Amino acid sequence: IISSEEKTLFGDRLPYVKENCTLIHISDHIPSEDSLTEERESLTEDILSIYYTSGSTGIPKIVKVSNENTLNGLLYLLQNYPANVQDTFCLNIRVSFSPSIRNILEAIIQGNKIVILPEYLYHNIDKFVETVSQKEISRLSLTPSFIRLLIENDKTSLVNKLNFLEVRGEAISMEDMMLFKKLMPETTIVSRYGST
Q: Which of 31-45, 80-94, 124-138, 167-181 has the lowest mean pLDDT?
């Protein structure tokens, strides 16, 4: 039974607790405010996430990413590619996939709206384009293969509306990058492949 000083968390008075129950006092297990402050001093060194990836090398590996690494990456993006107040971000990758952390935090830190797209939209390119357009998404992450699919299906009107396009998930050829820049001259395009 977990309790405060005179009552359990369920409101029972302690004198009525059965004899065969173990009583755990909350105050014995909650860290003091001082110890929480002490722990925060090493917060930047703490591991925020662990990625299991074959990455750009094709060799499976585990990458430990600290809070500091994540914050440095966010600061780089904020300093070099800041959002404007009208920008709408898009989380179009699984939350369990490492870049999702940065995608979510990048929008929140700048006070922007973020739209979470369901995975099934990738199986219907027309619905994907329709949803991204309706939600007025202006910052998006896509693989080069998916961008080529948009181009092949004459869906370039979608990408022309983007302020920022992050190309990730697979290597991009110089030929594709030049094609994307030609089709999206007003869009900032950044390759983030191989970030681990």
A: 31-45
Distances (CA, A) of 3 to 31, 32, 35, 169: 15, 17, 21, 49
Name which of 155, 195, 193 is nearest 184 in CA terms.
155
Q: What is the pLDDT of residues 41-55, one digit of tens each?
A: 556 677 877 777 766
Which segments within 117-192 are labelled E, that is strand? Answer: 139-142, 164-167, 188-191
- Residues 85 and 73: their CA atoms lie apart, in Å, by 21
What's the Cα-to-Cα distance from 157 to each of 23, 93, 125, 163, rounded to whole Å? 65, 22, 13, 13
Residue 194 to residue 169: CA distance in whole angstroms: 8
* Of 183, 148, 138, the residue nearest 169 (C-alpha): 148
